[in-house]
Amino acid sequence: DAKTTQPNSMESNEEEPVHLPCNHSTISGTDYIHWYRQLPSQGPEYVIHGLTSNVNNRMASLAIAEDRKSSTLILHRATLRDAAVYYCPPARAPPSFGNEKLTFGTGTRLTIIP
Amino acid sequence: ETGVTQTPRHLVMGMTNKKSLKCEQHLGHNAMYWYKQSAKKPLELMFVYNFKEQTENNSVPSRFSPECPNSSHLFLHLHTLQPEDSALYLCASSQDWGSGRETQYFGPGTRLLVL
């Protein structure tokens, strides 16, 4: 079954770079790697996605390992507004994964220290 | 604003009530999803609709009944819920389902309390 694993929590100082890791060792060759984040009392929001090459956008950078079994979300300069739960959910495809409930994963709770 | 709206934002209901949650997306997407987020549990996928057809039912109890009349609207009908069903219910949409490429856009959620 496709799964991703992330650390439960991380801390970073404000204005410092943050590197959030994700292990997706069972990813298939055509599945994109997505990252989302969920701010308190809000629904998850899209951050970035990629397939093989590193990606940059206004929110973050995504570094993808050459074997695609892991990726790292990079926040170049963390602010207090970046405090959130960050998810790298497994890609899903029909049929559903047998008896295992499909989830978004537990994510990494990022705390920013002023 | 993500282009996905949900109403109501908060709902309190008794165990014998019938209520419905509504989701609307203005993104021209073909797939829509219901998720449940309980306290201290992972965000759990409930249902997936692709081109108005239900493609995934993630072993959800029958007291939750989804409806997708068109690609822009998704409902979750609630009937005889239990207190443990209290949670944040999130709707999402994406261009398609099952390609491995889908980027999901989430609504703000409905906070449900069952008494």
Can you walk through the features of this model?
With 114 residues, chain A is an all-beta fold. Helix content of chain A is 0%, strand content 39%. Chain A has strands spanning 9-13, 18-23, 33-38, 45-50, 55-56, 61-64, 70-75, 84-87, 108-113. Chain A starts with 8 loop residues before the first strand and ends with a strand. Chain B is mainly beta. Chain B has no helices and 11 strands. Chain B has strands spanning 4-7, 10-13, 18-25, 31-37, 44-50, 53-57, 64-70, 73-79, 87-94, 105-106, 110-114. In chain B, strands 2, 4, 5, 6, 9, 10 and 11 form a 7-stranded mixed beta sheet that branches. The N and C termini of chain B lie far apart (31 Å). Chain A binds chain B through residues 28, 30-32, 34, 36, 38, 42-46, 49, 87, 91-94, 96, 99, 101-107, and chain B through 2, 4, 35, 42-45, 55-56, 58-59, 90, 92, 97-101, 103-109.
Return the structural class of chain B.
Answer: mainly beta
Evaluate the radius of gyration of chain B.
13 Å
- What's the SSE pattern of chain B? EEEEEEEEEEE
Strand order of the largest sheet of chain A: 1-9-8-3-4
Our count of helices of chain B gives: 0
Low-confidence spans of chain A: pLDDT under 50, at least 5 residues? 94-99
The number of distinct β-strands of chain A equals 9
